[in-house]
Amino acid sequence: MEELDRPPSPVSDFSDDTDDDTSLPDEDYLASRLSISSSLLPWKRHQQLLAEANSIEKMFSEKDGKVRAAMECEAVFESEKKRLGELKISQEEASSKFDLIRKQVEDEPLGLHALPKDLVDALRVSEKQAMIASELLRAQNKTVAREERVYLHAQHEANVAEASVEKFADIVGDLRKVSEMEVAKRKKQVERNKKNEVVSAKRLENRQRDRVKEYNRKLQESNNLAESQKNTARELHKTSSKRITVTSRITNGSKKFMEEARLAGHENRIQVALELKANTDAISAALKGKNERNAILQRKKEQAEREEFGTILKMGGNPYVEFKRRDVKKKAAKDEAREHERIKKQEAELADRMVKDDEYNRKKEEHLKRQKEYEDAYRGEQGREIIEARNRAYLMEKTTNNTDLIDPTRRIFNIEPSQVTTIKDASFGLGYNPRKDEGQLQAVIDMVKKKYPKVGPGEYSRLIPKKVALDDDTGEEANSVGLDGLLEPKSLPPGQDALSIMNKTGLEEVQLDEMSLTTAGAASGVSSRATTPGTAEVATRAFPKPQLTKFEKDALQKAQARQKN
Has this prediction a pTM greater than 0.85? Predict the structure, then answer.
């Protein structure tokens, strides 16, 4: 095999700069060399520069790998080529040996069978060895050709990779420095993060320790609560056992009663079923008997028609027409009877329906009448006069002597509501109230006594004045202590002095006591303010009629107009 031309070795003088250089790389220059846009933000341009540096570093690593692969392929190719030479020599030796033995065999005049056995065996062995050597040489030639192609391809890839990284050979050192600086920066950041995480972990550990303590505390509280609940449950269990015993007794009694009721119901259902079966059997037997009776009657009829058939023929009649006429007449009689029965049933149902309709209409009319009465009563209660009368009656009911306090025209002298009602005002307990007479004061005191029946003067009884009086029998001092001693002496009611003046002129004295004024009004059913003619005349002289203003006159006219309406 002819010698192949070896391409140049990929191992070149790629000597990296080994001198220590502590200067910082110029990132602007590197960015311009790598065609990174200067309009980007600094941090973004730095990130893109790091990405390009990593990419270039990866290209150099791939180039070194391809160079090593090319060198290994070259070594394999050389070893296979060397083995090819050795196999050529072996094949030539085996061929020459086989040719020599074959020549001896051909020179033998008696042929192959006359040769000794050792020579025949040597011929066969040499022939086999020559064939094996030839096959090995041919296989080795294929292997050498394959390894040569692999070597050439690896050499080409190495040359291409070397050419692609050649333009970055002058800045690869700076790019590595940039990557190393970034790695160092990230390591510092990792260390800081590690310290922060350690601090956070310690803080979390403390929190977890506190949570464990809190959990143990709550667990202890829960255990204590569970223990107390157990004790409570034991106590409740005793009570519940008693209650369950009572409940079980009641439940068992209820179950027994329900079971008896169920059995009774079951027995009733059995009896109903038996009764239904008996009724069904009776109806079935009745139907069978009726059918049998109809069959007997039909047979008798047929027998009679057969016996009568000849007679009708002798009389010149048509037996079939005669028999058919009888059947039609009998059927018509049955239909007429059935129709009469149906008409009677419909008449009875109609009469029953008329009675029910009449009862319904009567109840409906009563309901409508009652509803109309309610509506009329409600409508009547909404009138003004009725409302005013109801209000007047309510107010008169709340006064002591059924006094009428409503006076829209203000024609009668004013009466204060507090003077005609039993109510405790601000003067109660002071011992003096000139506007109320003795009966009204006593009514207020009785009302308070009823509200507080068990309350007395108590420790303040010493402050109640004692009334000194002489005993009629002995002539000694008699002590009388009570609430009556606290009352003021009787005073004239308002207007009594005016009546006294009128009495001096010869007029009849008229008492203006409220009891006398209200009693006559309540007995006669009119306003309690209505008085006798003499009383009205005296009151008019004692209290002259006030002059109304223009506004009061207008209001009075409007009120009178509303009353008329």
Answer: no
